[in-house]
Amino acid sequence: QVQLVESGGGLVQPGGSLRLSCAASGFSFSNSGMSWYRQTSGKERELVATISSTGRTTNYADSVKGRFTISRDNAKNTVYLQMNSLKREDTAVYYCYKPYDYWGQGTQVTVSS
After folding, report:
1. I need a labelling partner for 84 at 20 to 30 A (CA). Which of 18, 50, 70, 75 fits?
2. pLDDT, tens digit, for every residue of 52-92?
3. Using CA atoms, how far apart are residues 13 and 69, in angstroms rounded to an integer?
4. Integer Cα distance of 22 and 78 in angstroms
């Protein structure tokens, strides 16, 4: 079955960087677009970034454009989210997503001094 396992979250100071990873299995990864979402307590899940199956096309939420980069390695069945210049408002649980309605368990990112 489809499995998505996120890793790489943690505590980081404002201005710092983190790289999230999502290891995928149970489906044809190289044929699937992938996304990262995030959610804070009491708010709806927010789309952060998407990447096409080949990796050639990416899209970002305005709030992270220029700071976050989504990428993928189809040989490793893994999608990444490089997060730079982190801000306190980036604090959230980050989820890996595969269409349609497949989610990872989430990884907590906390930006705080």
Report:
1. 75
2. 999 999 999 999 999 999 999 999 999 999 999 999 999 99
3. 19
4. 5
CA distance 58 to 77: 17
**Rounded Cα distance, 113 and 49, in Å:** 26
Kindly report the number of other CB atoms within 10 A of residue 42's CB atom.
5
* Residue that has been written with the tokens 């149970």 in this structure: 26
Q: Which residues pair with 99 in a beta bridge?
A: none
pLDDT, tens digit (0-9, with 9 covering 90-100), for 3-50: 999 999 999 999 999 999 999 999 999 999 999 999 998 899 999 999
106 has a pLDDT exceeding 90: yes
* 3: amino acid identity, one letter: Q
The 3-state DSSP class for residue 72 equals: strand
